[in-house]
């Protein structure tokens, strides 16, 4: 069985917390005027990284959209737009692919888990349904341990994934986008050790189910990507709350 | 000169030959009649039609990513495997209908077979009412024509699992084959290599984040 080790950065975090304390205790014996009481010190800001995974690629073309374009091309374009918007907001972004290349689910999860991200976003596109489909893993929640089974590593983060999906849902719904929520099992997502959400971009439709925009429409993608970037910014703010 | 006794014997033999010939002719006629009666293919008895029964189908809706239980009255066979195939056939007929909220072409003919086996890990022996694993063998034409997308593929899988459990409560696990072979996914997204728990389908529309 394959395992994943997580929390590798905790040792340096502990050292960072202990060393200043020891230094302060050493200096504590010297004569110095008492410092005036100030605001309580905030914990150090965690490194905030977002992984953006453009689904399919290379030989895996994904579905055929109504416009004739392949799903792999639509997801790559969507990934580039979202990455640009997140980077412009000062968020470090790691993408699983920047070109038309094949990646299996394990490789996608490996890229994500090496980055120790605070959010993983997997992008898909579909010709059915309408608006944006949000999915979290269907694995049952469990307590994260130092070593997690590879195929079910996501179980330790399912609760956070659902919270992230809820935040994205709130932002998209507020922006007037039709959103559906669900749970699913995807090999790549189920191995990710981070809050992970699958976003499937479906055609934008009016009340009569007539298509307004296809998932590969640049303006439609830009509009959804902007909303997602704002929601992830809010997610970062929440993650930094003490 | 022929004696009187020999003459009488000759007449008796001739008479016996004629009588035997008549008997054989009559037996032949009877045998022919029996043969014609056996070959009669005209229906003489009306076929017995199974009484319609209530079947619950978990029908998928792409608009709101939901499964809804709908009750239909169907003539269902007594054999559990044939019954499973019948309810799934009706479910796929609904999806193939015009104005379906989860459109997939193919209909009932897309289900090749449904096998019911004792579920892995259960101690049930033959005839025991333990949990069962349903193996649904789909036709490749159905998979080839299925729309690609995470939502639509997940709904198809969950609606099949939910429908099986609703009508055969002992079915707790479902696996999928395509033309008798294992396929990695339905149409590029939904994983067909894993064993699905029917409980996932039951809670699918209740587990929204």
Could you please describe the fold and organization of this structure?
The complex is a heterodimer of chains A (242) and B (209). Chain A is of the alpha/beta class and 242 residues long. Chain A has one domain (49-239): 3-Layer(aba) Sandwich (Aminopeptidase), CATH 3.40.630.40. Chain A is built from six helices and ten strands; from the N terminus they run βαβαβαβββαβαβββα. Chain A has a six-stranded mixed β-sheet, with helices on both faces. A two-stranded antiparallel ribbon of chain A has the order 1-6. In chain A, strands 9-10 form a two-stranded antiparallel ribbon. In chain A, helix 2 crosses helix 6 (218-239) and helix 4 (158-174) crosses helix 6. Chain A is globular, with a radius of gyration of 21 Å. Chain B is of the alpha+beta class. Chain B folds into two domains: 1-37; 52-202, no CATH class. Helix content of chain B is 39%, strand content 22%. Chain B has five helices and six strands. Chain B has helices at residues 4-38, 80-96, 140-145, 150-167, 198-202, and strands at residues 52-61, 66-75, 111-118, 132-138, 171-178, 196-197. In chain B, the strands form two sheets. In chain B, strands 3-4-5-6 form a four-stranded mixed β-sheet. In chain B, strands 1-2 form a two-stranded antiparallel ribbon. In chain B, a hairpin with a 4-residue loop joins strand 1 (52-61) and strand 2. Chain B is rod-shaped. Chains A and B meet through strand 5, helix 4 and strand 7 of A and helix 4 of B.
- Rounded mean pLDDT score of chain A: 85
What's the order of the H and E elements of chain B?
A: HEEHEEHHEEH
Rg value of chain A? 21 Å
Can you tell me the CATH architecture of chain A?
3-Layer(aba) Sandwich
Please count the beta strands of chain A (DSSP E, at least 2 residues each).
10
Query: How many DSSP helices of chain A?
Result: 6
Secondary-structure class of chain A: alpha/beta
> What are the low-pLDDT stretches of chain B, counting only 5+ consecutive residues below 50?
205-209
User: In percent terms, what proportion of residues of chain A is strand?
Assistant: 15-25%
């Amino acid at each position: 069985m394959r395992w994943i080790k997580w929390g590798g950065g905790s040792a340096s975090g502990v050292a960072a917390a202990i060393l200043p304390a020891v230094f302060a205790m050493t200096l504590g014996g010297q004569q110095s005027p008492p410092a005036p009481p100030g605001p309580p010190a905030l914990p150090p800001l965690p490194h905030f990284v977002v992984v953006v995974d453009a689904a399919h690629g290379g030989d895996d073309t994904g579905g055929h959209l109504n416009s004739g374009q392949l799903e792999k091309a639509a997801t790559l374009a969507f990934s580039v737009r979202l990455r640009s918007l997140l980077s412009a907001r000062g968020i470090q972004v790691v993408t699983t692919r920047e070109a038309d290349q094949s990646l299996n689910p394990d490789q996608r999860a490996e890229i994500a888990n090496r980055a120790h991200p605070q959010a993983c976003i997997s992008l898909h596109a579909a010709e059915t349904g309408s608006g944006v489909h949000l999915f979290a893993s269907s694995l049952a929640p469990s307590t994260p341990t130092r070593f997690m089974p590879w195929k079910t590593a996501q179980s330790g983060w399912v609760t956070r994934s659902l919270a992230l999906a809820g935040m994205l849902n709130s932002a998209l719904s507020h922006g007037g986008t039709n959103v559906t929520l669900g749970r699913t099992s995807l090999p790549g997502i189920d191995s990710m050790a981070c809050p992970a959400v699958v976003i499937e971009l479906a055609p934008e439709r009016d009340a009569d189910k007539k298509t307004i925009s296809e998932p590969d429409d640049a303006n439609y993608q830009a509009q959804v990507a902007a909303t997602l970037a704002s929601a992830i910014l809010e997610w970062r703010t929440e993650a930094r709350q003490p | 000169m022929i004696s009187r006794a020999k003459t009488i014997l000759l007449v008796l033999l001739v008479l016996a030959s004629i009588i035997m010939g008549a008997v054989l002719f009559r037996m032949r006629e009877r045998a022919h009649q029996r043969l014609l009666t056996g070959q009669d293919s005209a229906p003489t008895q009306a076929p017995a039609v199974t009484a319609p029964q209530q079947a619950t189908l978990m029908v998928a809706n792409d608009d709101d990513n939901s499964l809804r239980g709908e009750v239909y009255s169907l003539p269902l066979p007594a054999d559990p495997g044939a019954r499973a195939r019948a309810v799934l056939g009706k479910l796929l007929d609904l999806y193939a209908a015009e104005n379906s909220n989860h459109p997939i072409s193919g209909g009932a003919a897309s289900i090749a077979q449904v096998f019911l086996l004792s579920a892995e890990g259960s101690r049930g022996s033959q005839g025991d009412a333990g949990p069962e694993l349903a193996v649904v063998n789909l036709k490749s034409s159905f998979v080839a024509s299925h729309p690609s997308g995470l939502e639509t593929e997940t709904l198809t899988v969950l609606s099949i699992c939910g429908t099986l459990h609703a009508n055969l409560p002992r079915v707790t696990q479902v696996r999928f084959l395509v033309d008798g072979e294992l396929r990695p996914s339905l149409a590029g997204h939904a994983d067909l290599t894993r064993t699905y728990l029917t409980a996932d389908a039951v809670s699918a529309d209740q587990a929204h984040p």
